[in-house]
Amino acid sequence: MLMDNNYNIQGGDNILPLGLYKECFNYVNDGDSICNMGSGITFTFEKELLKFKKVKISCIDVIPLNEKPEFIEKYVSKNVEELFYFKKKFDLIFFFELIEHIDNTDILFRNIYNNLKDDALMIFSFPNLSSIYIRLELLFGFQPHILEVSNICGVFGTGIFGNFNNPKRKSIHHIRGITNKAMKELVKYHGFRIEKIIGWEYRVPLLFKKIPCLAPINIFICRKIANFKYDNI
User: Fold this and answer.
1) Are 153 and 163 in contact, with CB atoms under 8 Å apart?
2) Euclidean distance between CA atoms 196 and 78, whole angstroms
3) Using an 8 Å Cβ cutoff, are 96 and 16 in contact?
4) What are the residue ranges of helices labelled H in 166-226?
5) Under CATH, what is the fold of the domain 11-127+178-224?
6) At a CB cut-off of 8 Å and minimum separation 6, what does 35 contact?
């Protein structure tokens, strides 16, 4: 999908490896009502999930959609950085590679909390700023390849690491860098209990699975704490 340089590309329309999605499928039950926030409009995750589970999927993204596919229960064009409420709450809410693209991360989690059933799961992934790769990049004085300084070129200051991971030198609009530790504190602040954290790397997924603090990608499985009280946003 072609975007202009001012568009903040969200994760749903990036090509994410299917193995990442499949790590989440065991937490889905047949009959669940599911929401994917920041879904994009290619629906790769949704197509793959429906091969394994009989579920109803709603999708939310800022991108307008001319015609909703039949396999999507509902598509809503909304900005996840603005508060919204749905009439019915979901059994499970996902987002993949989304949070690093947005400014109002607190609003994202408030939206998920408000639209998720009590004790239900939130599952999401994000690039880990404390991964072993990023630590090495910083050690040698390079800009972390997952954090950009330009909306035109995505590899300024990243050296060989950036050119290897992003040979086309495109900007992917990552405006947030989040470590494993920071994310743990963020989700707890917003009323979620962490059930499991999975480390992931598409080349050698098994290597990092049990050491998420060093993994390039983290998958968080979190449960909503009912009637949680915290400071208003």
Assistant:
1) no
2) 29
3) yes
4) 180-189, 205-208
5) Rossmann fold (3.40.50)
6) 57, 58, 59, 60, 90, 92, 93, 94, 115
Residue range 116-158, pLDDT digits in tens: 999 999 999 999 999 999 999 999 999 999 999 998 999 999 9
pLDDT single digits (tens) 182-231: 999 999 999 999 999 999 998 888 899 999 999 999 999 999 999 998 76
C-alpha span between 61 and 20 (Å, rounded): 20
**Start and end residues for every CATH 3.40.50.150 domain found in the chain:** 11-127+178-224
Pairing status of strand 217-224 against strand 116-127: antiparallel
In angstroms and rounded to an integer, the radius of gyration of the C-alpha atoms of the chain is: 17
The helix or strand, by DSSP H or E, that contains position 130, with its residue range, turns out to be: none
Structural contact between residues 39 and 64, judged by C-beta atoms closer than 8 angstroms: no
Each residue's pLDDT tens digit, 47-85: 999 999 999 999 999 999 999 999 999 999 999 999 999
